[in-house]
Design brief:
Layout: H1 3-15, H2 18-25, H3 29-43, E1 48-51, E2 54-57, H4 59-81, E3 90-96, H5 101-115, E4 119-125, H6 128-136, E5 142-148, E6 157-165, E7 167-172, H7 185-189, E8 193-196, H8 201-210, E9 217-221, H9 223-232, E10 238-241, H10 249-252, E11 256-259, E12 268-275, H11 282-303
Parallel strand pairs: 3-4, 3-5, 8-9
Antiparallel strand pairs: 1-2, 5-12, 6-12, 7-10, 7-11
Helix pairs in contact: 1-2, 1-3, 1-4, 5-11
Length: 304
C-alpha cells in the first residue's frame, strides 16, 4: 500500500471521475486506474463503483473512508512537522443552496482564509438532494440547506441549525408593493414571479403558499443569488428566506427589499449538514466552527 494510492481514492471521491481526478493530480488516467485497482486487490475490496458517467466511492469504500482520511491526515501532519509547506494545501468542498451567503457564509470564509491561507474552499451551488448525496458519498465536506419545520433529516447525516427565519416577499426597492407594511398572497399572485426550480425548498414553499392558484411564473432559476439579481433588475418578485436577503449587498444598496407575507407563519431554518465521522480534518472542523460562531453573532444582532 502506498500513500499516493489513498490520495488517488480521495481525489476520485472529490471529483467524481477517474478522468477529472487524473487531471487534477497531473497523472495519466490509466496509471491512476491501475494504482487504485492494485490497492483494491491488496485489500480484497472494491473501493470504487466505476460507471460510464463517472466513478464514486463504493459502499465498502465508505466504510473504510474514515481510516483512509486518518492516514492522509497523519501524513499531512508529518510533512508539516518536517517543514514541507505544501502539506497544508487542501481542498474543502461546500455544497450550498445559496442561503445567507452574505450574512453568514462570506464572513466565515473571510475568517477561514486568515487561519488557513493555503486551503481552497470550493463552493458548489446545487439542490438540497444533490448536497445530501454528495455528503453521503464523501464528495462534499459540508452542506448548507434550508429546512422547513417538520422536514425529516437524512439518516446518515447530522445537522446543526444555524439561523431561523421566515419566508418573505422579495421586491425591487421601487415596487408599489414595497410601500406596504406586508403583502398578501393575492397581491403576489398578480405579479411576474421568479420561481426557484424544482428541488429547491422555496419551490416547495411557493406551491404550499399559493396552492392550486400559482402566479404566472415568468422565470425559473437555480438558487437565491440569481433570483435576487433578477428581482433587482425589475424582472419580477420572488419569495426567499429572510436571512437570504437581509444584509445582502443588493439589499444594502437599496436595490431590493423584503416584506412579510400576510397570514403566513412558516418557519425556515438554515442547517449545516455533514457526515457522522469520528475523525474530521482540522480545516473542516475550523470552517464548521466559524459558521456556527458567525450564525450566533447574526442571531444576536437580530435579537438586539
Amino acid at each position: 500500500m502506498r500513500i499516493e494510492q489513498l490520495e488517488y481514492i480521495a481525489a476520485v471521491t472529490q471529483h467524481g471521475s477517474l478522468r477529472r481526478a487524473s487531471q487534477q493530480l497531473h497523472i495519466s488516467q490509466p496509471a491512476l486506474s491501475e494504482a487504485v485497482s492494485k490497492l483494491e486487490r491488496e485489500l480484497g475490496v472494491t473501493l470504487l463503483d466505476r460507471r460510464r458517467s463517472g466513478a464514486r466511492i463504493s459502499r465498502r469504500g465508505r466504510d473504510l473512508q474514515q481510516f483512509m482520511v486518518e492516514v492522509l491526515e497523519a501524513v499531512d501532519r508529518l510533512r508539516t512537522a518536517s517543514g514541507d509547506q505544501s502539506a497544508s494545501t487542501r481542498l474543502i468542498r461546500v455544497g450550498t443552496v445559496s442561503a445567507a451567503t452574505s450574512t453568514l457564509l462570506a464572513p466565515a470564509l473571510r475568517e477561514f482564509r486568515g487561519a488557513h491561507p493555503a486551503t481552497t474552499v470550493e463552493l458548489i451551488n446545487t439542490q438540497q438532494s444533490d448536497i445530501h448525496q454528495g455528503l453521503s458519498e464523501g464528495v462534499l465536506d459540508l452542506g448548507l440547506v434550508n429546512v422547513l419545520a417538520g422536514d425529516d433529516p437524512p439518516n446518515d447525516l447530522t445537522g446543526t441549525g444555524l439561523v431561523h427565519g421566515r419566508p418573505v416577499a422579495v421586491l425591487p426597492a421601487g415596487h408599489p408593493l414595497a410601500e406596504r407594511a406586508a403583502v398578501t398572497v393575492d397581491e403576489l399572485r398578480g405579479e411576474p414571479f421568479v420561481a426557484m426550480r424544482a428541488g429547491y425548498l422555496m419551490h416547495r414553499f411557493a406551491h404550499r403558499l399559493f396552492g392550486a392558484e400559482m402566479p404566472a411564473v415568468s422565470y425559473s432559476t437555480d438558487g437565491a443569488e440569481l433570483g435576487k439579481i433578477m428581482v433587482a433588475e425589475g424582472l419580477g418578485v420572488t419569495v426567499l428566506p429572510d436571512y437570504s436577503v437581509l444584509g445582502d449587498p443588493m439589499e444594502r444598496a437599496g436595490l431590493i427589499t423584503t416584506r412579510p407575507i400576510v397570514d403566513d407563519h412558516t418557519a425556515v431554518t438554515l442547517v449545516l449538514r455533514h457526515r457522522q465521522l469520528e475523525h474530521v480534518p482540522q480545516p473542516v472542523r475550523d470552517l464548521k466552527a466559524m459558521l456556527v460562531a458567525h450564525a450566533r453573532t447574526y442571531r444576536e444582532s437580530r435579537a438586539s
